[in-house]
């Protein structure tokens, strides 16, 4: 019992400091002063990749399929032979019509001679006007028949040409609907499809207000021409090539108050990939991608490390160090992200001091021991 009073006095003396700072005093944190830096403005949307050309190959006549000239899934060039159909019947038809042209040509040549003789006889007692008129009419009739026969030859040549089905566009070819040996007709449906690969379109819907803001913001630099488009792929990587907006729908989409924009994006082969290999290009027709709309020139704006920003149900915030080294929570509005930095459009001012290291040790209202965070130091894990 004689030790109770000294122990109570010790607890009373130690409690205030321990409650405020803990055994080691105020927690040490790394801080930085908020400054303006060059930040590329960026806004993110969701888009869908669309091929610039997508063609269904259909037979133009009825014949047996005798040859397929491509590997399924390969990339073909414009004009490559895709299918060959049975030719003999069409070759025979062409030969018959060419013979008909030759026959009518011979008859027309004789009719011309007959007309000329009848014309010469008109100046003699033996000449009759009716004979000349008949000869002239026969010549005109044969001339018309020759034109019709030549047109039939042209049709036969076109039909014979349709026995070779060639690629109308360059791109990746799909699976063949029919195997060699099948009878194909114009009603057989698409034999195969070709999807162009480079470049690609990306379609994405943008609120009308954002479209107006982009147009006005970059009006002095050429409007949409001053906007660069980058894509975030489904695996999280950023597509290396940049594109540009080349089309905007003339009407607002009903019910969503958005305008559909279209960007034209290069889609080159991946490093080391070969044409026709699966996954040889980043962009695939129909895939969803993240669309980053960026200004072509950086602007000066407040920016903080991403690791200094925490999130909760109310939004983003940072910890600011104020007078007497007390910590305050500041709600912030975030702007464009660039690398390890993120722009801040509201909630902070230039010169504010924020915590960038040791966020897990702080909370609003406590006193900290701030020290400047070293440049290039590893970012601390955000609190919250």
Relevant terms:
disordered C terminus; Elongation Factor Tu (Ef-tu), domain 3; elongated; 24 strands; alpha+beta; about 375 residues; 6-stranded antiparallel beta sheet; OB fold (Dihydrolipoamide Acetyltransferase, E2P); single chain
Helices, strands, pairings?
Elements: H1 4-21, E1 28-33, E2 35-39, E3 42-51, E4 54-57, E5 63-68, E6 75-76, E7 81-85, H2 88-121, H3 129-161, E8 164-166, E9 171-173, E10 183-184, E11 192-195, E12 200-207, H4 208-217, E13 227-232, E14 244-248, E15 258-265, E16 288-295, E17 299-305, E18 310-312, E19 315-321, E20 327-331, E21 333-338, E22 341-346, E23 353-357, E24 369-372
Parallel strand pairs: 1-24
Antiparallel strand pairs: 1-23, 2-17, 3-12, 3-16, 4-11, 5-7, 5-10, 6-9, 7-8, 9-11, 12-15, 13-16, 14-15, 17-22, 18-19, 19-20, 21-22
């Amino acid at each position: 019992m004689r030790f109770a009073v000294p122990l109570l006095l010790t607890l009373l003396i130690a409690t205030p400091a321990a409650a405020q700072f803990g055994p080691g005093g105020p927690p040490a944190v790394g801080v930085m002063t908020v400054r303006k830096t060059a930040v590329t403005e960026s806004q993110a949307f969701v888009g869908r990749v669309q091929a610039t050309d997508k063609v269904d190959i259909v037979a133009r006549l009825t014949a047996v399929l005798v040859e397929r000239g491509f590997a399924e899934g390969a990339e073909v060039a414009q004009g490559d032979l895709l299918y060959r159909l049975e030719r003999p019947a069409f070759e025979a038809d062409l030969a018959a019509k060419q013979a008909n042209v030759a026959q009518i040509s011979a008859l027309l040549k004789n009719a011309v001679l007959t007309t000329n003789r009848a014309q010469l006889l008109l100046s003699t007692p033996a000449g009759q006007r009716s004979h000349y008129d008949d000869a002239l009419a026969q010549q005109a009739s044969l001339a018309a028949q020759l034109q019709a026969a030549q047109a039939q030859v042209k049709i036969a040549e076109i039909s014979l040409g349709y026995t070779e089905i060639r690629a109308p566009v360059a791109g990746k070819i799909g699976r063949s609907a029919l195997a060699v040996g099948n009878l194909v007709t114009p009603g057989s449906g698409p034999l195969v499809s070709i999807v162009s690969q480079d470049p690609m379109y990306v379609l994405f819907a943008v609120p009308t207000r954002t479209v107006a803001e982009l147009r006005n913001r970059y009006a002095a630099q050429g409007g949409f021409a001053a906007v660069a488009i980058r894509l975030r792929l489904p695996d999280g990587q950023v597509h290396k090539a940049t594109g540009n907006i080349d089309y905007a729908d003339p009407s607002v989409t009903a019910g969503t108050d958005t305008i559909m924009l279209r960007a034209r994006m290069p889609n080159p082969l991946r490093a080391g990939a070969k044409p026709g290999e699966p996954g040889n290009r980043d962009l695939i027709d129909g895939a969803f991608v993240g669309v980053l709309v960026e200004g072509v020139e950086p602007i000066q704006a407040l920016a903080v490390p991403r690791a200094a920003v925490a999130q909760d149900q109310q939004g983003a915030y940072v910890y600011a160090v104020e007078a007497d080294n007390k910590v305050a929570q500041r709600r912030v509005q975030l702007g464009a992200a660039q690398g390890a930095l993120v722009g801040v459009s509201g909630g902070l001012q230039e010169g504010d001091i924020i915590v960038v290291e040791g966020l897990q040790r702080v909370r609003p209202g406590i006193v900290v021991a701030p020290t400047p965070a070293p440049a290039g130091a590893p970012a601390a894990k955000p609190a919250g």
